[in-house]
Amino acid sequence: NEQSGCCITADARIDYREELAEKLGLAWNKAKDLPDSILLLNAYLKWGKNCVRHLYGDFAFAIWDGRSGELLCARDQFGCRPLYYIETGDCFAFSSDIRGLMFIPGYFPKVDEVFLVDTLATIVPEKDKTAFKNLYRLKPAYVLICNQGGHMNMEQYWDLELKPGYAN
Fold this sequence. Notes:
By secondary structure, the protein is α+β, with helices and mostly antiparallel strands. Helix content is 19%, strand content 29%. It has helices at 17-24, 28-31, 36-47, 113-120, and strands spanning 6-15, 56-65, 70-75, 84-87, 92-95, 135-137, 142-147, 152-156. A five-stranded antiparallel β-sheet has the order 1-2-3-7-8, with helices on one face. The protein has a three-stranded antiparallel β-sheet with strand order 5-4-6, with no helix packed on it. It is globular and about 50 Å long. The termini are far apart.
């Protein structure tokens, strides 16, 4: 987006598109043919990192905001679409396919034996772990914000709320 200096890459299927377009102030006759990535970017431009609170569907996306010098990575509430990442000290890389990260300069994939043992022993591994050391998966319903100084901040934006009386 030349006007904002933001760019997006996304693996997404956005549901309730008409309602989202209305919240964004977009005419449905024009918005109905927009790619999901453009709807996502418009949501980010309106609500910033809180855009994920307005989204329904399956998604993993990253938005570079040239104005703030920050990268926002986000994953849908149920983790239908994956988003993997590594940090090698001088490089942060992400991909929706784990194989895309195997050949990043400075990253040397090593099998995480603890992850494999936990998996074989039917112990549910942490949702952010993978079979490789120092290669992580963004948890469902989380955003990861990275700035140019190398600081990373992870925030959960959604959690399943159980109403009283439904747990019985």
